[in-house]
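Shape matters. As here.
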Amino acid sequence: MHMFMRATLHTAIRTSTDPKWEKLTMQTTQIADRDQDRQVFALLLDGFDQSVGHPAEQRWRWLTAAHVVGQNNFSMHWNSHSAMLRFALATRDHPEAAGQILRLALVPLGHLLHRLPAGNIGRATVNAFAPMALTPELARLIDEMRERSKSQESPTAPQSLRF
């Protein structure tokens, strides 16, 4: 069974008995097309790469959006945390780097047990096990990259991140 379908089914089972999960699942953008997931993920990482020189928090938005999009795919999930670790080290954010090392250790376990908290942004500043509702800003960024992936535009900064 396709990993995303398995995760969605698992979430659907939880949401049928838990209103909290239902609300969070409804707020989290569902990604049905694996190829589009990969394209959106790549656009987000390209956006991060092209945002060199921008404030660190703005650059983190690209990485957290990539984490949300790639979380249900092992390799994209691993790559998002690897990119977060590299960025934390580059910015000398040692607590974040330590948190990313822990999350890299948890990625295989989370996928094996199908325990991936929907919408979690993947930062060391949040609980690694807590589902999260997407912020409007993050949802907008992901939606813009989805639209861009459909039209094959270049991954320049979307309107929501331009100054």
Remarks:
- Residues 1-16, 25-32 have pLDDT under 50 and may be disordered.
- The radius of gyration is 15 Å.
